[in-house]
Amino acid sequence: MNVLRTPDARFQNLPGYAFTPHYVEIPTGDGDGDTLRVHYVDEGPRDAAPVVLLHGEPSWSYLYRKMIPGLVQAGHRCVAPDLVGFGRSDKPAARADYTYQRHVDWLWALFEALELQDVTLFVQDWGGLLGLRVATEHPERVARICAANTFLPTGDQPPNEAFLGWRRFSQEVPELPVGRILQMGTATELPPEVVAAYDAPFPDESFKAGARQFPTLVPAVPDDPAAEANRRAWKVLESWQKPFLTAFSDGDAIMRGFDTIFQARVPGALGQPHATIEGGGHFLQEDRGEALARVVAGWLGGS
Predict the structure, then answer these.
(1) Catalytic amino acids?
(2) Region for residue 134 given its phi and psi (left: phi exceeds 0; alpha: psi -120 to 50; beta: otherwise)
(3) Radius of gyration of the chain (CA)
(4) How crowded is residue 265: how many other Cβ atoms within 10 Å of its Cβ?
(5) How far apart are CA 235 and CA 130, in angstroms?
(6) Using CA atoms, how far apart are residues 292 and 147, in angstroms rounded to an integer?
(7) Dihedral, CA atoms, 263, 135, 247, 64, nearest 10 degrees?
(8) C-alpha to C-alpha distance for 137 and 75, rounded to whole angstroms
């Protein structure tokens, strides 16, 4: 596996992101003994139960810079990894290196390496497609889940037009404009330096194999390679009794309505203080991160 690593200099002096970097080595999954270096933010008291914050496509842990301080101030430990192929984590160079199952395996390897227990799992976008798989396959590690602008597709229902348009764009555009994509998915105007921070992990197109591949891995037909595993995950979710909160924004065309599906199908969602985050787009952590942190901290304080 040919692996690229973004130079550290690309991450210097990013606005609002002064967190100390942490790294862990996990297996590539090729069976050759090679490893990938995965980056994660780890803030707050180490003896507190972790709030694991999972980003999606094509963002990285920078997306959580507005949420982490509020959660830490409320007494929580925040662990925000960069998925393989994103942020400060290693980036396999071939698109074929990225599969849905391999991403699930990589995330589980991180859980094991960091010995994460009693986890509050916060998932958004692809963070949900991966995190919900890990949670349902290893429920003993996860105490509660908060889902924000995400879903767990099986391909049994066709994707909406907003997603299909995004997928076409992601595959046809000659140069994937990561920072601009973040701007397209937010309701607020991002300063140029913030757009540049989202571009920072990708010095050129060769670093974007994972970002390019992710949209094609979303199960869109019933016989997708990941469809059956996701159906099994739904069976677990449909008997999930632990607290399950939804905190979707009011301005996400791709994920609109999926919060009510979670609320209807997951028993643990019953009676939870579900929130609609006003003024947020798809990347609601960017638009309303502080408000979102207050919702999560208040939920944790009352659970």
Answers:
(1) 125, 252, 282
(2) alpha
(3) 18
(4) 13
(5) 16
(6) 11
(7) -170
(8) 28
What is the dihedral sign for C-alpha 186, 176, 25, 230? positive
Does the pTM exceed 0.90? yes
Q: Are 127 and 119 in contact (CB under 8 A)?
A: no
Q: What share of the chain is helix, strand, coil (3-state, %, to 5)?
A: 40, 15, 40
Q: Please compute, for residue 249, the number of CA atoms within 13 A of its CA located in the half-sphere on the CB side.
A: 26
At residue 246, the 3 state secondary structure works out as: strand
**Closest C-alpha among 302, 300, 259 to residue 119:** 300
Q: To which residue do tokens 């869109």 refer?
A: 220
Encode pLDDT of 34-74 as tens digits: 999 999 999 999 999 999 999 999 999 999 999 999 999 99
Sheet holding 35-43, edge to edge: 22-27, 35-43, 77-81, 50-54, 119-124, 142-148, 244-249, 275-277
Tell me the per-residue pLDDT of 244-269, one tens digit each, with 9 for 90 and over. Answer: 999 999 999 899 999 999 999 999 99
Token pair of 115 as six digits: 């010995």
**Domains of the chain listed by start with CATH number:** 3-302 (3.40.50.1820)
At residue 238, the 3 state secondary structure works out as: coil
Kind of pairing between the strands at 35-43 and 22-27:
antiparallel
The neighbouring-strand residues paired with 37 are: 25
Q: Are the beta carbons of 226 and 101 closer than 8 angstroms?
A: yes
Rounded to whole angstroms, the Cα distance separating 234 from 217 reads: 18
